[in-house]
Amino acid sequence: MRANILKIASSLAFALTATSAFAHAQLEKATPAVGGTVASASEIRLEFSEGVEPKFTKVTLTGPGGAAVPLGSASTAPGNQAIFVVPVSKPLSAGVYTVRWAAVSVDTHHTQGTFEFTVKP
Ligand SMILES: [Cu+2]
After folding, report:
1. pLDDT tens digits, 19-57
2. Is the pLDDT of residue 91 over 80?
3. Among 113, 107, 99, 114, residue whose Cα is nearest residue 21
4. If you measure from the C-alpha of residue 40 to the centroid of ligand 1, how many angstroms do you get, rounded to a whole number?
5. Do the bridges between strand 43-48 and strand 80-87 make them parallel or antiparallel, or are there none, so unpaired?
6. CB distance 118 to 38 below 8 Å
């Protein structure tokens, strides 16, 4: 009897864990694309699997040599809180850029990641 209760409890815990992992804001698409090459970029656009809190979601961009690139004020797209847009304040010179993002989804879970894109000469 006791063993059965434990078994039910552990499978319930597993189900809850699986559900919350599924609900995290994962990066589904980025513009510039992850690993992609572009002629220029006036904004970084991140599309997540669920809505994010713009106040607590951060993006940094570093350029060739590791210099920080100034970014404008970020926001979610009108009518779609899963799309996070950060304007790039100045034209990007050629080279490899690194985007670091840290998102807080509407369910308060934290996710983060890093990817690179290249601006061609
Ligand atoms: Cu979540």
Report:
1. 445 568 999 999 999 999 999 999 999 999 999 999 999
2. yes
3. 107
4. 33
5. antiparallel
6. yes
For the chain, the domains span: 25-119
Of residues 27 and 13, more confidence is placed in: 27
Amino acid type, 82: A
Q: How far apart are the CA of 58 and the centre of ligand 1, in A? A: 17
- Cα–Cα distances in angstroms (integers) from residue 11 to residues 23, 70, 86, 88, 104, in the given order: 19, 48, 41, 47, 28
Distance from the alpha carbon of residue 86 to the mean position of ligand 1, in angstroms: 22
Q: What amino acid occupies position 90?
A: K
pLDDT for res 115: 98
Tell me if residue 92 falls in helix, strand or coil.
Answer: coil
Ligand 1 centre and the CA of 109: distance in Å? 5
Decide: 84 and 58 in contact? Cβ < 8 Å: no
- Report how far ligand 1's centroid is from the alpha carbon of 87 (Å): 26
91 CA to centre of ligand 1 in angstroms: 35
Is 25-119 a domain of CATH 1.20.1250.20?
Answer: no
Amino acid at 91: P
